[in-house]
Amino acid sequence: MKRVEKYGELLVRMITYPIRAAIGAGRCIHKSTPDTLEDCMPFEIKSKSDKKGDIIDVKPINEDARN
User: Fold this and answer.
1) pLDDT tens digits, 49-66
2) pTM
3) What is the rounded average pLDDT of the residues 34-43?
4) Cα→Cα distances 25→22, 39, 53, Å
């Protein structure tokens, strides 16, 4: 009878393993992910500007100029 119980417990553990692993991975990712980007990025993203500090307006390339 002990052998049947042992195999039953093993079968339940094998069936529930993927579910338990997914829950554990989800909790780990949620715990280690920062709430905002400022928490993990120590630098600031800026637009490219000229010497005066004005933002440079970049114009798209014309199709005629390429050909």
Assistant:
1) 656 655 555 555 555 555
2) 0.48
3) 72
4) 5, 22, 46
CA torsion, ordered 22, 27, 32, 33, to nearest 10 deg: 80
| Residue 39: strand, helix, or coil | helix
Report the phi/psi class of residue 53: left, alpha or beta, with left for phi > 0 and alpha for psi in -120 to 50: left
The closest alpha carbon to 57, from 46, 65, 49, belongs to: 49
Q: What's 38's DSSP letter?
A: G
Higher-scoring residue by pLDDT: 18, 60: 18
C-beta separation of 56 from 49 below 8 A: yes
